[in-house]
Amino acid sequence: MTASAPTSTTRTITLRNGLSVTVEEYGDAAAGGSGALVLHGGAGPRSVAGFAAALSQHAYVVVPTHPGFDGTPRPESTDSIADLAVAYLDLIDELNLHAVMVLGSSIGGWIATEMGLRDNRARISALVLLAATGVKPEAPLEIADPAKLGPVRTGELAFHKPELRLNPATLSEQQKAGMAANQRTQAIYAAVSYDPKLQGRLHRIAVPVLVLAGEQDGIVPLAYERALADSFPRATFRSIAEAGHFPHIEQPGSVFEAIGDFVDNEVKPDGE
């Protein structure tokens, strides 16, 4: 799929609990009340911007910036993955959306999973998890910690294509400071790299789930993603060749093909 750089708008929405969330919106918000919520990982909202723009050719898309990322305010009371999950369910309510597909990258996938567990208004129609984290890895599997690896090694493990790897020498001091601030914010939300109790609750998620994993992901092992998929009662697992931790960036065509098949075979039968 080729995106034509659709226009997006940015606004700040204040939720019922007083939390302010900055969102980027693509497409027509009035298109039937349905839509897609795209949740970024530790790399920030820009890491899913192209993906969201392409997705908006088919749906209204909302991309929230997790409070504290990219200089947005974060109240001290919002300090966990669960807090973000509840906030984004409130966001869906505020936007009056239904049949929402929630797509999350890395810890965004963890947030999406927590949303699925708490969706008592049945607003969510499906989850798409891209190189998601959240459950405890079984030894000898490990999830790499970018904070310990540094940007160069993280790039080598995160991207299959060398040209996509970050070169710190090309960054301004402002960009470096922004990345460091985002990393500190992620560390607040994910004080531990997984929830030891999460896997035991995933059987309660009734909606269909698509788990996508890059075959060359050096951050989250492929075997971890297979085990994650096995934890859901209605999961589809797809590996993406020649892709690392950001398959939606390295192989967008393959990712959208997988999502299309998933919608046609697993999601639409429920809604038609």
Structural summary, described in words:
The chain has 272 residues and is an alpha/beta fold. Helices cover 35% and strands 18% of the residues. It is built from 9 helices and 8 strands. The chain has an 8-stranded mixed beta sheet, with helices on both faces. The longest helix is centred in the C-terminal third of the chain and has 20 residues, at 252-271.
Number of strands: 8
- The DSSP helix count reads 9
Low-confidence stretches: none
Strand content: 15-25%
How do the SSEs run, as a string of H and E?
A: EEEHEHEHEHHHEHEHH
Protein name: Alpha/beta fold hydrolase
Pfam family, one: Abhydrolase_6
Keywords: Hydrolase
GO molecular function, one term: hydrolase activity
What labels describe this entry?
272 residues; alpha/beta; eight-stranded mixed beta sheet; globular; hydrolase activity; hydrolase; AB_hydrolase_sf; AB_hydrolase_1; Alpha/beta fold hydrolase
Structure in a nutshell:
Helices cover 35% and strands 18% of the residues. The chain is of the alpha/beta class and 272 residues long. The longest helix has 20 residues, at 252-271.
What is the strand and helix layout of this fold?
Layout: E1 8-14, E2 20-26, E3 35-39, H1 49-55, E4 61-65, H2 81-94, E5 100-105, H3 107-118, E6 124-130, H4 146-149, H5 151-158, H6 173-189, E7 209-214, H7 222-230, E8 235-240, H8 247-250, H9 252-271
Helix pairs in contact: 2-3
